[in-house]
Amino acid sequence: MEVLQRPGGELATRPIHFFWVVDCSGSMYGEKIGIVNNTIQECIPEMRSAADNNPNAQLLIRALQFSSGASWITTTPVPVEDYGWEDMDANGLTELGKAFDLLAAQLSIPPMPERALPPVIVLLSDGQPTDDYKRSLEKLKKLPWFRKAVKIAISIGQDADDDVLVEFCGNNELVLQANNAAALAKMIKWASTTASMVSAPSSKPINSVAASMPAAASGASVVASTPADDPFASANNGAPLVLDMSNIPNPDDFDEGAVW
Fold it and tell me: Taking 80 as the threshold, does the pLDDT of residue 26 lie above it?
């Protein structure tokens, strides 16, 4: 898709790439993967509605699964109006590094354009990586589009490695806890609305959290400025990058009797 690149010119339609990255290891089998499949499917109409409210951005969605290896469920970016979720199955190991490798290939330039709104990456996992994920994560962190991306992780159950998820997000406030079915569904629904926040009109820019930014106080907004010499600044007209975290569901509000 051709994107207007003249700074200060007429506002063109700019892509927003939304990535679901889903742990499909054996420990996700049954209730967990069922909730993921059902809830994301239910969220698609809300994402379409948000996209309809912003004609200056095109929301493109992809899904990536990882277990013993990793693969794209959606091999190319699909406009949200044409997108349909494909149910995932769960078995095997937790080779998160393989998922990071595939993600890095898609966040490079090309295939990513030089001008776009910051991507959204939502990672869901309930375990600990079984491969050497650190090398792959370091490769990801060197990519400008990964650094600019909104990165959210959903920690599923008490066996999830939150330290790894914080490494991915660069901010522990963006690691959402889901220790039972109700919490998982709520966290997925909240994360999916991040696309509509990122695609807000330019008068209300809500984009990404810099990986180096400290965690915000609970219920606050996380803000990072775009440096003047940043080659990506013109993609957002140099506006502050803000992620409003005031409406994240509180995991303490859910029934503790059904903890994973």
Answer: yes
